[in-house]
Amino acid sequence: MAKKNTKRTKDARAEIDRDAEYELGAAVKLVKDAATAKFDETIEVAMNLNVDPRHADQMVRGVVQLPNGTGKSVRIAVFAKDAKADEAREAGADLVGAEDLAEKIQAGEMDFDRCIATPDMMAVVGRLGKVLGPRGLMPNPKLGTVTPDLAGAIAAQKGGQVEFRVEKAGVIHAGVGKASFAQDALQANVSAFVNAVLRAKPSGAKGTFVRKVAVSSTMGPGVKIDIASVEQ
To answer: How wide is the angle at C-alpha 218 spanned by C-alphas 171 and 139, nearest 5°?
Structure first.
């Protein structure tokens, strides 16, 4: 069986022209065919952008709701108190607290993937900027993670909401599903992500905004996508 998997992997990879740009559907199919690991590989999108995020007017950041979710179980920490803390627990938050939660995080307990806060808790959360910020976990009202609507925010995060932020080299990447997803579900997710980034084009971006878009699985090769087949 292992030999068959190896041969199938080699055959799938041999079909990929690393220099070619494929139509979205063809690219996703190639990636799915090459995802032959024994676990359910994550499908990732990487976008190389023509921006320098060191300049404030070239920062690219935002959030997108993937229509078919990410396939990943998301643990959420919520800063809230009293009735809002109860609301967060009822909505499915994994960790809820105020000063006590801040102390745990300061002590290095970071067993969560997203962090949400009610507006009145930002004085407490603000003190954790050096801990949460570098990990991309700092609640932000523009991303919907500082809000009085905890039930809505938690549902969005657990239901497939993905945050994106350009890195120093001008690259944005994110997981947009699993190899086990149906072809059309992955295509819809990739399209939603790419178009969200396109809509987030900053005022300081000059010339061609997107240099390259590629899709890949955790263990598989990257496949370039013709952005014209994705743009909406």
So the answer is: 50
Contacts of 226 (CB under 8 A, 6+ apart): 21, 22, 23, 24
Across all residues in the chain, what is the average pLDDT? 91
Which residue in 105, 99, 176 sits closest to 134, CA to CA?
A: 105
d(CA 155, CA 187): 23
CB distance 43 to 81 below 8 Å:
no
Q: What is the tens place of the pLDDT at every residue in 101-125?
A: 999 999 999 999 999 999 999 999 9
> Model confidence over 53-91: pLDDT tens digits?
999 999 999 999 999 999 888 899 999 999 999 999 999
Do 16 and 221 contact (CB within 8 A), yes or no?
A: yes
Q: Give me the residues paired with residue 6 across strands.
A: none
Rounded to whole angstroms, how far apart are CA atoms 118 and 148? 5
Query: Tokens at residue 1, please?
Result: 């069986």
Q: Is 202 helix (H, G, I), strand (E, B) or coil?
A: coil
| β-pairing verdict for 42-49 and 171-178 | antiparallel
Neighbours of 198 (CB within 10 A): 18
